[in-house]
User: Fold this.
Amino acid sequence: MEISIDIRNKSFAKGQRVMTVLDDIHLDIDNGEFITIIGPSGCGKSTLLKIIAGLDSDYEGSVQIGKRAVNRPGIEQGFVFQEHRLFPWLTVEENIAGNLPLKKAAIRKKVDELIDIVRLRGFAKAYPKELSGGMSQRVAIARALLRKPGVLLLDEPFGALDAFTRRHLQEVLLQIWLETETTMILVTHDLDESVYLGNRVVVMGTHPGRIQRLIRIDLPFPRQRTHPSFQKIRQNVLQEFESADEFSLVRQQNQ
Assistant:
């Protein structure tokens, strides 16, 4: 689904002060696009994602998904957190189904398809304590995809994983995106990840959080991390990231 983001201001009260977290965020995302968002800690990346998800409506501005104004969670938005948040007393298939009846043939078929998509065949009856961190995150992704959302929002879902597992799940997520053509927005601190997965990289600065630059990644899939073209774009993103971080520190010191 297409997304139109127009956030003029998002602030929090902090004691006697009002702290502006997001300011003048304007972004249009095409249907089926994969957007990655990077920026210094505290720049409002997760807050932005929660606003798009409808989990936070206390701000000035508007967000629209398709033709619907977003002011609450909906089936159009799937959300994957950094922690998998699986129910430990439910099996993999039960966690994916959530509150939908597995006995219903259509639900069973969809759950089985998702188990295959996230490469967990043979683990349908397993409980979370029997899964690795990467496997648990795959269950969380499958759960978010069950209702066929038009938008999948991912808040650093691989941040707590080891490098090998992280790369594996990047491939899984990329394959899901290519197969489903779901619009995806991924918040990450990993520069390689942002370039490897994104059609565009949103570089944010902070104090307050703003979009510093949009960088289009015109590289075909599958992408080669060691290719000179990839490394050139990665260096460009790194320079913007460092610039955003340094500028944020200067603004913070001058406040």
